[in-house]
Amino acid sequence: MTVQHIDVIRPAELSPTDLELWGELRASTAPEANPFMSPEFCQAIGRVRQGARVAVVRQDGEPAGFFPFERGRWGRGRAIGLGVSDSQGAVLRPGVVVDPYELLRASSLSVWEFNHLESGQDLFLPFATGRFASPVIDLTGGYAGYETLLRAGSRTFLKATRAQERRLARQAGPLRFVFDERSPAVLGTLMAWKSAQYRRTGRRDRFAQDWINNLVRMLATTQTPSCSGLLSVLYAGERPVAAHFGLRSRTVLSCWFPAYDRDFATFSPGRVLYLRMIEAAAAAGIGMLDLGRGDAAYKDSLKTRELTVHEGAVLRAGAGAALHWLSHEPPRAFRGFVRERPQLKAAALRTLATVGRMRDRTPRP
């Protein structure tokens, strides 16, 4: 008879055996090995977030699965790195059956919240309250195959971007693309561009939070097969004009923080960067670029298909679960109401833009 036990540890306490098994399970069970589900990403979060934990499921004393999470007050739990992670869930050996409520009880959680639960997470899918498209670029046919699809589906986008690329080179100097840039200074430039973009569009500035700053700089130096930081930069002359920082595994590049120099906005340097980056990714053996959940015209033009991610929460009876429901469900229902009505969605975006303009006019301390 199989005896199951659940231990809860800090990410730094994962043993070499645990790390090896985690990596093997992801490689063998996940069609797309997203780096956000790697043990290295979990450990990086553990260095910047005090509540980071891992529930290790053991059968007959041997590790059989891992459930990474963050625990807050009143037992309120959330997916590891919630707010910046684009793939969430548990990593379990095939055939392992776990009661989700028992998993939360063993983890001292009254609730576990997720917003990018990957498909195939049968343990948590019954608790999903929303599903969203996450556009991806399939590169299994190489860049030539992808460009053929792009010409067929987004010919105007491709033609306009190539024209902008030539204009940029004429006006700003010879273009140079670096797929894997190692410069901390250029990473800092990208983060400053992105921070300004958040403020300009009325959104919360992620880089105003120290833990996200520290996380990105830490991951920029991480180099493992299942999770490596990747900074890609487009230069005009010696000046960076667009950049992207993401995470890659052997087969997946998860797009994360793209931005560009506003001085060159008329040349669409972000689009030029993406085409260069897609071509380099294909040459590096990457089979898929995950563009991430969220609406954007460039994603619609570049994508070849879509994955599905889910949001929701597992709740056990308790004060933490009640607090979660009161603070999350009414706003979630309202956001869904707005998303389904284009006029309301457009009005919300205009309001965010107005807030952004007001922020830009307000002196910063």
Automatic annotation (TrEMBL):
Residue ranges of every copy of the BioF2-like acetyltransferase domain listed in the record: 160-299
Highest taxon, organism lineage: Bacteria
InterPro entries (alphabetical): Acyl_CoA_acyltransferase, BioF2-like_GNAT_dom
EC nos: 2.3.1.-
Keywords for the protein's UniProt record, in alphabetical order: Acyltransferase, Transferase
GO molecular function: acyltransferase activity
Protein known as: GNAT family N-acetyltransferase
Species of the source: Streptomyces yangpuensis
